């Protein structure tokens, strides 16, 4: 990753940096929820079966997985700022294309192309955001990664809410997604001006530990960044290869995988499962997804307190167990209101998998960029590949019962919880 030596961050710069990263996370959530909340409308406009929906989602998955697989090299080569900027612009263009394909062309192929572009932009953008977030977390001197991911969740709450309103008033998918894409691209491109992970070098001990969203009051703050490493002479490919051979990093990836699958399955299938499995309207389905992300947001903002008090391992165990319970209630609920209660538990349980996994992967700042990219790749494999495969399974057992497959990986995450313990 390109760096510039000799630059330290003042308190005001760290505050602006942190807030800019919050915007990047929030915009990512807004982009995701915007198209997910309109899946019922997209399905109806294109007359798709659950299997067809799965195939279209697979196009986004392939784009995302290709992007996230190469994200370590991309971030090390371009820097997190340029990667995030480029990714957000691609996502904005993808939203515009998907909306045009749905409303104007009524073409599943055009819609799939739009989702593939969204995937290509999202994968490397999210990995770069985690690298940038880990650098901010070390600058602040306390766990803030759950709250950064909470900003993503706030973005999904806003996106789901706007999606529910758009569905209720029958706003064409094109106009909805075009507006969302413009907001995402402009806000992130602007916020990236305050990113500092690419220009702030490794320094000594931290001198700053404020409240997460309070204003810094101290002077210059030494910052340890992901890209300034002790093994700088190594080329970027070798750094990534070393991370893929690290046992703890791989196990962290599998731990994140189960909880990411629970989050991704909800994102892609909750609205349809409520509509088809529990007899709810499209607007009620979008609102149900909004409920899920609302409780996931609550879990992420509460996560900092829980992690400080109990540590990563017990919190990860509680999350996996709660996700299993909520998922079971959602699937087997005899009445719709109970299904919504299951969504709340499911959202709380899925809330901390990604942020804790990213923080754990970045425990060693000298190897954070490479290890975060590896854990991201494994986690996104489930987040992205799982939901389309659930669509194919739903062809045989129905949408609701296909979600039971997620419980298997949640059990694996429960067992692997100890790997999240702070590295020495």
Automatic annotation (TrEMBL):
Alphabetical UniProt keywords: Membrane, Transmembrane, Transmembrane helix
PANTHER family: BYPASS OF STOP CODON PROTEIN 6 (PTHR23514), INNER MEMBRANE PROTEIN YBJJ (PTHR23514:SF13)
InterPro entries assigned: MFS, MFS_trans_sf, MFS_Transporter
One Gene Ontology CC term in the entry: membrane
Subcellular location: Membrane
Residues annotated as transmembrane: 20-41, 53-76, 88-106, 112-128, 148-168, 174-195, 249-274, 286-307, 319-337, 343-362, 374-393, 399-420
Name of the protein described by the UniProt record: Fucose permease
GO molecular function, one term: transmembrane transporter activity
Major subcellular site: membrane
Lineage: Bacteria, Bacillati, Actinomycetota, Actinomycetes, Micrococcales
Leader sequence residues: none
Protein topology in the membrane: Multi-pass membrane protein
Species: Pseudarthrobacter niigatensis
CDD domains: MFS_MosC_like
Superkingdom, taxonomy of origin: Bacteria
């Amino acid at each position: 990753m390109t760096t510039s030596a000799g630059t330290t961050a003042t308190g005001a710069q760290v505050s602006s940096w942190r807030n800019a990263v919050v915007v990047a996370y929030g915009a990512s959530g807004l982009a995701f929820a915007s198209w997910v909340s309109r899946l019922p409308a997209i399905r109806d406009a294109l007359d798709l079966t659950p299997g067809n929906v799965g195939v279209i989602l697979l196009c986004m998955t392939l784009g995302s997985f290709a992007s996230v697989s190469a994200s370590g090299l991309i971030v090390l080569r371009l820097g997190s700022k340029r990667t995030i900027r480029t990714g957000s612009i691609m996502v904005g263009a993808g939203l515009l294309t998907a909306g045009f394909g749905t409303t104007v062309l009524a073409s599943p192929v055009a819609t799939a192309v739009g989702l593939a572009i969204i995937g290509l932009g999202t994968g490397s953008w999210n990995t770069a955001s985690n690298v940038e977030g880990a650098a901010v977390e070390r600058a602040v001197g306390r766990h803030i990664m759950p709250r950064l991911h909470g900003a993503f969740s706030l973005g999904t709450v806003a996106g789901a809410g706007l999606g529910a309103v758009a569905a209720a008033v029958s706003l064409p998918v094109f106009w909805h997604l075009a507006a969302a894409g413009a907001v995402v691209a402009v806000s992130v491109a602007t916020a990236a001006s305050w990113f500092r992970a690419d220009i702030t070098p490794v320094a000594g001990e931290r001198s700053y530990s404020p409240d997460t969203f309070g204003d810094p009051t101290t002077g210059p703050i030494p910052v340890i960044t992901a890209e300034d490493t002790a093994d700088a002479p190594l080329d970027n490919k070798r750094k990534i290869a070393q991370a893929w051979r690290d046992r703890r990093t791989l196990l962290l990836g599998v731990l994140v995988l189960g909880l990411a699958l629970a989050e991704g399955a909800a994102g892609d299938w909750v609205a349809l499962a409520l509509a088809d499995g529990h007899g709810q309207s499209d607007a009620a389905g979008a609102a149900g997804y909004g409920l899920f992300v609302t409780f996931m947001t609550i879990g992420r903002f509460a996560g900092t307190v829980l992690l400080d008090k109990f540590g990563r391992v017990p919190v990860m165990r509680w999350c996996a167990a709660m996700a299993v319970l909520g998922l079971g209630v959602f699937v087997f609920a005899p009445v719709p209101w109970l299904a919504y209660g299951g969504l709340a538990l499911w959202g709380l349980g899925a809330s901390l998998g990604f942020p804790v996994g990213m923080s754990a992967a970045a425990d060693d700042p000298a190897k954070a960029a490479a290890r975060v990219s590896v854990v991201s790749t494994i986690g996104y494999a489930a987040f992205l590949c799982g939901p389309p495969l659930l669509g194919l399974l739903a062809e045989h057992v129905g949408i609701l019962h296909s979600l039971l497959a997620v419980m298997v990986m949640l059990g694996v995450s429960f067992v692997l919880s100890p790997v999240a313990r702070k590295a020495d």
